[in-house]
Amino acid sequence: MNKKLIIVLNGELSDDLEKYKKRLIDNQNFIIACDGGYNNCKKLNIKPDLILGDFDSLQEFEFDNILKFPKEKDKSDFELAIDYGFEKGFKDFETWGAIGKRLDHTLFNISLLLRIKKEGGNANIYHPPYIVFIIDKEYNFGVRNSGFVSFYPLTSEIKGLTIKGMKYELNEKDIYLGSTETLSNEFIGKESFVNFKEGIILVILEEA
Fold first, then answer.
1. DSSP one-letter code for 80
2. Do β-strands 92-96 and 122-127 pair in parallel, antiparallel, or remain unpaired?
3. Global pTM?
4. pLDDT tens per residue across span 58-104
């Protein structure tokens, strides 16, 4: 499956709605609105391919292609959309509206990126001007003239972290969960990359 699965949740969208639309590629996207995420689709003036969920936050709508689940269930609508994506053979996942007023929902939404990664998929949360994704090996950012990036450990330790081509460089340093040493680095117009020997990192990247 070459198409990208875009999952639209019921959280907040950034003010610049046009940036979301620029992420769409003609005939290369499959869009799932999770319950109240359908309202976000309407804000963006895009039509989802499927509406999925228990419909606890979406009462009035007209749509043919729906997948309804009971309100009492063990998974969030977002995770059910991930299940659907893997069942249909998707490998690339992008999520909009994952950041919201409910801190618990936001944290669990971010944690589901880890599930997708562990099951062989690629995933990000798009919340302009930020893109959030997970890396478990070397990552090259190319040349960026400006912008910020933070590296948050998702494991108790990141062994041998090297950061090159950014304002603050590291050379094979062990970074522990609870340290802020990798918060808010800056691109300076050089070829930049990170690598490490062991661990999993959540990257919070400001768009170029």
1. H
2. parallel
3. 0.92
4. 666 666 788 888 777 789 999 999 999 999 999 999 999 999 999 99
Tell me the C-alpha distance between 56 and 191, whole Å.
47
Neighbours of 206 (CB within 10 A): 17
CA distance 91 to 107: 22
pLDDT of 129-150, one tens digit each?
999 999 999 999 999 999 999 9
Q: How many CB atoms sit inside 10 A of residue 27's CB? A: 6
State phi, psi for 206 to the nearest 5 degrees. -80, 135
| Cα end-to-end span (Å), the chain | 28
- Within 10 angstroms of residue 20's Cβ, the number of other Cβ atoms is 23
Domains (ranges, CATH) in the chain? 4-128 (3.40.50.10240), 135-206 (2.60.120.320)
